[in-house]
């Protein structure tokens, strides 16, 4: 009968196996025309924003409302010591309030002077697109203010995805001026 292993030897074994394990390479392509995006749903629309336009994806934290602010500004929250404005993205784009629920996600994006978060209806995570998937259906995203921010569309994963420009959103004067 062998003696039981000490906790230390078990941890050493875990470390050795972990170091020797080679994880599979992420789904990345260096081919021309490939790009990575964060995919999400806003109302009935499937949207994707370039991965380099989204700083972070996170849940909706507790927040403080801002008196006399636009209705689409849900409030502000403390995010690692920084003040983070949180926007009801659907209300800003379509004039329709987002139904908040547990597990709700928001995209944190950079804007002049700091960061801002936009609450999305559903998050699909990272997706890869190729220019060969591009379709001539950007006009399908003309509802509300959406058409101003969607300039192209892609057919992928059985759906049509509008490419939403977060940089353009954060430069829009109306979006930057949340005081009513």
Q: Any descriptors?
A:
180 residues; alpha+beta; OB fold (Dihydrolipoamide Acetyltransferase, E2P); 5 helices
Architecture blueprint of SSEs:
Elements (H helix, E strand, L loop, with lengths): L6 H14 L13 E9 L2 E6 L5 E4 L13 E7 L2 E7 H6 L10 E7 L2 E7 L1 E9 L3 E2 L10 H4 E7 L2 E6 L1 H6 L1 H4 L4
Parallel strand pairs: 2-11, 5-7
Antiparallel strand pairs: 1-2, 1-8, 3-6, 4-5, 6-7, 9-10, 10-11
Structure notes:
With 180 residues, the chain is an alpha+beta fold. The chain has a single domain, classed as CheA-289, Domain 4 (OB fold (Dihydrolipoamide Acetyltransferase, E2P)), CATH 2.40.50. Helix content is 19%, strand content 39%. It is built from 5 helices and 11 strands; from the N terminus they run H-E-E-E-E-E-H-E-E-E-E-H-E-E-H-H. The chain has helices at 7-20, 89-94, 146-149, 166-171, 173-176; strands at 34-42, 45-50, 56-59, 73-79, 82-88, 105-111, 114-120, 122-130, 134-135, 150-156, 159-164. It has a 6-stranded mixed sheet with strand order 8-1-2-11-10-9. Strands 3-6-7-5-4 form a 5-stranded mixed sheet.
Strand fraction equals: 35-45%
Poorly predicted ranges (pLDDT <50, ≥5 residues)? none
In CATH terms, what is the fold-level topology? OB fold (Dihydrolipoamide Acetyltransferase, E2P)
> Measured on Cα atoms, how large is the radius of gyration?
21 Å
What is the terminal separation in angstroms? 77 Å
CATH-level-2 architecture: Beta Barrel
Structural class estimated from helices and strands: alpha+beta
- CATH homology-level superfamily: CheA-289, Domain 4
Shape estimate? globular
Number of beta-strand segments: 11
Q: Helix count, per DSSP?
A: 5
Mean pLDDT: 88
| CATH class group | Mainly Beta
Q: H/E series, N to C?
A: HEEEEEHEEEEHEEHH
Helix content: 10-25%
Oligomeric description of these chains = single chain
Main sheet characteristics: 6 strands, mixed
**Strand order across the largest sheet:** 8-1-2-11-10-9
**Count of distinct structural domains:** 1
């Amino acid at each position: 009968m062998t003696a039981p292993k000490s906790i230390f030897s078990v941890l050493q074994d875990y470390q050795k196996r972990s170091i020797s394990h080679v994880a599979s390479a992420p789904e990345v392509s260096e081919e021309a025309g490939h790009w990575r995006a964060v995919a999400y749903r806003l109302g009935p629309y499937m949207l994707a924003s370039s991965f380099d336009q989204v700083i972070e994806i996170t849940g909706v934290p507790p927040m403080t409302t801002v008196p006399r602010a636009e209705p689409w500004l849900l409030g502000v929250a403390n995010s690692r010591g920084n003040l983070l404005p949180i926007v009801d993205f659907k209300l800003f784009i379509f004039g329709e309030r987002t139904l908040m629920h547990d597990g709700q996600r928001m995209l944190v994006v950079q804007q002049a002077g700091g960061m801002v978060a936009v609450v999305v209806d559903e998050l699909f995570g990272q997706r890869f697109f190729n220019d060969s998937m591009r379709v001539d259906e950007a006009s399908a995203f003309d509802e509300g203010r959406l058409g101003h921010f969607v300039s192209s569309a892609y057919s992928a994963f059985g759906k049509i995805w509008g490419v939403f420009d977060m940089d353009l959103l954060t430069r829009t004067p109306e979006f930057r001026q949340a005081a009513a």
